[in-house]
Write a structure and sequence with these properties.
alpha/beta; 308 residues; Nitrilase/N-carbamoyl-D-aminoacid amidohydrolase; globular; 15 strands
Length: 308
């Protein structure tokens, strides 16, 4: 299959039609290149706040509320495009309202979740919520960790999603690997270069230890009228385990830093299955061997050496 992952610049829209035209163009561009799985970045939906006007888009509460108001309509647009072109699309994530009973009581009051919808050619619509919030999401946006991890059984294979910061936590990736995930999608939103590399290193580490393909999408560029996503740094990237059948670097494809556009790679999941069964190393199978080795012994090295 060919996978397309986005380095996506945010826009400021005057009308819904402007947004629809942009998304349609991006999807059609990837489809024209033969992609069947399209991955958009974390918080790419924040550009929907522009539809509420500049004052709302530039405000912490106004921007989150405006995006939540439009997110379901945006999902319907992506569903139509997925069905029309016969592709799977991970939509750019954004703040979404949810049942407070599903949230940690400490975070539930007024909280939203960071939700990425997955749309299938069949018309099926589902989603993955981000699990672990960054400091900004917790303290400024009041975004809470949402419903738990999911495995998406698709015609392309078993897909899992770790949204940005989630990719930096190996036990989340391991849970998906144990559930059979072969393709791990990592939509990302990072302001600075170190943020991009944190998520990229996380994505590559999950591909290494779970012996799977990890697909990273990023927001890029500057849009000063959109609160909290004014400046963005990143690139698209598709990674695998550096093992038999994969590049020795583990990098199947990577886009140029901060350059908008799609990054593409051909992915054969038989290579994933082969390396899991008979790779040069077997990280995924050998993972449980860590458990018996977690006891840590403290060895004193500061004392003076005995006299001879």
């Amino acid at each position: 299959m060919k996978i397309a992952t986005a380095a996506y610049p945010l826009s400021f829209f005057a009308t819904w039609q402007d947004y629809e035209d942009k998304i349609t163009h991006w999807v059609e561009q990837a489809v024209a290149e033969g992609a069947v799985l399209l991955v958009f970045p974390e918080y790419g939906a924040m550009e929907l706040a522009s539809l509420a006007g500049e004052a709302a888009a530039g405000d912490v509460i106004g921007s989150v509320t405006a995006v939540a108001d439009h997110l379901a309509k945006a999902a319907r647009l992506h569903r139509q495009l997925a069905m029309a072109h016969g592709v799977h699309i991970l939509m750019a994530s954004g703040p979404a309202r949810t049942d407070p009973a599903r949230l940690d009581p400490a975070q539930a009051a007024g909280a939203m979740v960071n939700r990425a919808y997955l749309l299938a050619p069949s018309g099926a619509v589902t989603f993955q919520d981000k699990q672990i919030m960054t400091r900004f999401e917790r303290d400024d946006w009041n975004i809470a960790g949402g419903e738990g991890l999911r495995v998406f059984e698709t015609a392309l294979g078993r897909i899992g999603v770790l949204i940005c910061y989630d990719s930096e936590f190996p036990l989340l990736g391991r849970a998906l690997a144990e559930a059979g995930v072969e393709i791990l999608l990592v939509p990302s939103c990072t302001e600075a270069l170190e943020g991009y590399w944190r998520v990229r290193i996380g994505a590559m580490a999950r591909a290494l230890e779970s012996q799977c393909v990890a697909v990273m999408a990023s927001i890029v560029g500057v849009e000063p009228r959109l609160f909290a996503v004014e400046e963005n740094c990143g690139a698209g990237g598709i990674f695998g385990p550096p093992d038999r059948g994969f590049p020795p670097t583990g990098v199947l494809a990577e886009g140029a830093l901060n350059q908008p556009g799609w990054t593409y790679a051909e992915v054969d999941l038989e290579q994933v299955r082969t390396v899991r069964a008979d790779g040069h190393v077997l990280n995924r199978s050998h993972w449980p061997e860590q458990v018996a080795r977690l006891a840590v012994e403290s060895v004193e090295m500061r004392a003076s050496a005995p006299s001879t």
